Amino acid sequence: MDMTPVSICNVTQCAYNQANLCHTLGINVGSHAECNTYNYRTAKGGNREVKAGIGACLAAECRHNQGLECRAPDINVTFHDSHADCKTFEAKR
Fold it and tell me: What is the value of pTM for the model shown?
């Protein structure tokens, strides 16, 4: 099973963000669809050779969540109200 990739992250103040891509092995999405891996730093970290995937998703109300795993084709992360959110979140119907 492959991890769902993070296609775009516009949270440029995150330590893992370089050129609107996330460069850590994996992020975790919290119960309110927030990126729990978001780390505000002026110094950049991570590995430029790596593009992040979703390690775990706790957003139980998202239609892409199956067994705490993300089944979306990919996700986008955006800055919202002083934190990073999964913009791909879609409420279950």
Answer: 0.92
Domain ranges (residues) in the chain: 6-86
Confidence class for position 36, pLDDT limits 50, 70, 90: very high
Strand pairing of 17-18 and 21-22? Answer: antiparallel
Q: Say how many C-beta atoms besides its own lie within 10 A of residue 93's C-beta.
A: 4
Within 8 A by CB and 6+ apart from 46, the residues are 15, 16, 18, 22, 23, 24
Angle at 31 between CA 85 and CA 62, to 5 degrees: 80
State both tokens at 83.
């934190």
> Given a cut of 80, is residue 92 above it in pLDDT?
yes
Structure tokens at 60: 């139980």
